[in-house]
Design brief:
By secondary structure, the chain is an alpha+beta fold. The chain has 16 helices and 24 strands. The chain is 28% helix and 23% strand. It binds uridine-diphosphate-N-acetylgalactosamine and manganese (II) ion. Uridine-diphosphate-N-acetylgalactosamine binds next to strand 1, helix 8 and helix 11. GO terms for molecular function: carbohydrate binding; polypeptide N-acetylgalactosaminyltransferase activity.
Length: 529
């Protein structure tokens, strides 16, 4: 009897010891750099909030959300995550000053899986010092069920605004930014989990560089298994000329310091922190963009070109569920919407380099993109640099598709440009009002002398087309080579100049006479020879 009691006692003591140790250890890991008032999950009525996993979800777990809803529902909202930071972040972290500003965390969502949205919020409350969170501002973008957001407002820090129409993530975020009370804004998708000590390095960097938009390293939460995997190395955000976002190696082979901020030409868009005053000043996001897509380019070009900068902060890590499809409807179709938003970006910011985008995505020219005058005015008001500056200073390793251009863009006299009507070749060139959207007015003058529009060459062939300047298939012969003399365009084999004096009929070549206005041509961009 006595022995039995002794054993029970020992077992009890052991259980207590282990329990205490576990809680202490878990708290150490989870609250490192986190709150001294840890968040208590009991304040969340989890069971009430989460819906039953339906039979249909079990049959087709990827259908509704493009991630596995069955697995998502099974995971606890406060699950532990592996600390994905470099160990050097820990010592670096201890030197962060005590007083950091507060942030409003803005999460826009549309029909998000409840379990994923809740986990996003709980992970924030669990791994962030509560005194740094001004609020967690949920913007319900007109989800089918208003309760998705409504049931969460009892959670500490959580506030909710619901759109009365579907606005898309861009306008929703801007709305959030205007309502936010914090000095810093932090935007996040509604299916994220923040990692240990994620916020402090972001805030600290903004204190040092108030015009810097910072993003964490975005770790991957697998859409099928929800396994959290740290992003293998620190990459920078980049793109190709179709404006597809991609991760790229950093250009210069310096001795990589794995905890130093990494400058990035563009951000992926999902998660970033920014000084509210700076965000307001630099024009937030383009609210004429719809639903999804393209806004991260617009924000990135604008930030860099108008006096700010963008960095990825390696000691800050946030997981995001990457998925292949959009689980929601685009009222105007997803391609149209993406192209509309992207064209707005291209037309506002890319200057003469936009022709490379149009060459890569010709069909986008047909896409209407609305009025951009407000954004153009903003660009003037903020005295922004041009896109050429951006390419040279921010993204020098983006290769131009064409490298042998003497000049390109419009070839014009005043507000009239060299133009042509599509039809059977040879086609006579005309002088017409310049139009940004006419492909036929885009010319590229190559170093070997040819002047090309849409793959056709500017030609003068007295035997075949008399004096008319026409376009023909390119044969790279003498009759297709031109050179610049002052403002004139001189035909190499005949020495005659392009002249517009009879522009009703078409452009011709005539004896060169530098005093004639009809032989003076401006070209949008002329590269130094
Ligand atoms: C990527 C970005 C995202 C944004 C988008 C381009 C990453 C990891 N994420 O999103 O931040 O830059 O590309 O626009 O780079 N939402 C609404 N209303 C809508 C549609 C979406 O509120 O009409 C919400 C949605 O619930 C989610 C967020 O917006 O919280 C982003 O949408 P997503 O997760 O479908 O897009 P994703 O991850 O491809
Ligand atoms: Mn997302």
């Amino acid at each position: 009897m006595r022995r039995k009691r002794k054993i029970t006692c020992v077992v009890l003591i052991l259980v207590w010891l282990l329990g205490t140790l576990y809680i202490f250890w878990d708290g150490m890991v989870e609250n490192f750099g986190g709150s001294n008032k840890p968040f208590n999950l009991k304040s969340v009525k989890v069971e009430e909030y989460l819906k039953e996993t339906s039979e249909q979800d079990v049959q087709e777990p990827m259908r509704k959300h493009a991630f596995n809803i069955v697995i998502s529902n099974k995971l606890p909202p406060d699950r532990s995550l592996p600390d994905a930071r470099s160990s050097r972040c820990l010592s670096h972290f201890s030197s962060i000053p005590q007083s950091l500003p507060t942030t409003s965390i803005i999460i826009a969502f549309h029909n998000e899986a409840r379990s994923a949205l809740l986990r996003t919020i709980v992970s924030i409350l669990k791994r962030t010092p509560l005194e740094l969170i001004a609020e967690i501002l949920l913007i319900d973008d007109f989800s089918n069920n208003p309760q998705d957001g409504q049931l969460l407002v009892h959670i500490p820090k959580v506030k909710l605004v619901r759109n009365t129409n579907r606005e898309g993530l861009i306008r929703s975020r801007v709305k959030g930014s205007k309502l936010a009370k914090g000095k810093i804004l932090t935007f996040m998708d509604s299916h994220c989990e923040v990692n240990v000590g994620w916020l402090q390095p972001l805030l600290q960097r903004i204190i040092q560089e108030p015009k810097c938009i910072v993003t964490p390293v975005i770790d991957v939460i697998d859409k099928e298994s929800f396994v959290y995997t740290r992003a293998p190395e620190i990459l920078q955000g980049g793109f190709d000329w179709s404006l597809n976002f991609r991760w790229e190696e950093q250009p210069y082979k310096r001795k990589v310091d794995e905890i130093k901020p990494v400058k990035t030409p563009v951000i992926s868009g999902s998660i970033f922190s920014v000084n509210k005053d700076w965000f307001d000043n630099v024009g937030r996001l383009d609210t004429k963009m719809d639903i999804w897509g393209g806004e991260n380019f617009e924000l990135s070009f604008r930030t860099w070109m108008c006096g700010g900068m963008m960095e990825i902060i390696p000691c800050s890590r946030v997981g995001h569920v990457n998925r292949k499809q959009h689980p929601y409807i685009f009222p105007d179709g997803n391609v149209n919407t993406y192209l509309k938003n992207t064209r707005r970006t291209v037309e506002i910011w890319m200057d003469e380099y936009k022709r490379f985008f149009y060459a890569a995505r010709p069909s986008s020219r047909m896409q209407a993109f609305g009025d951009i005058s407000e954004r153009r005015n903003l660009r003037v008001k903020l005295h922004c640099e041009n896109f050429r500056w951006y390419l040279e200073h921010v993204y020098p390793n983006l290769k131009l598709p064409v490298s042998d251009e003497l000049a390109y863009g419009h070839i014009k006299q005043g507000d009239h440009c060299i133009d042509l009507d599509p039809g059977q070749l040879p086609v006579i060139t005309k002088l017409r009002f310049c139009s940004e959207s006419k492909m036929a007015q885009d010319w590229s003058w190559r170093r070997k002398g040819i002047i090309v529009s849409n793959g056709m060459c500017l030609t003068s062939d007295p035997l075949v087309t008399h004096d008319y300047v026409v376009v023909q298939f390119c044969n790279y012969g003498d009759n297709q080579r031109w050179y610049r003399h002052l403002k004139q365009i001189v035909h190499e084999s005949t020495g005659l100049c392009i002249d517009s004096h009879d522009s009703g009929k078409g452009l011709i070549v005539a004896d060169c006479d530098d005093s004639l206005d009809t032989q003076q041509w401006e070209i949008t961009v002329e590269n130094p020879a």
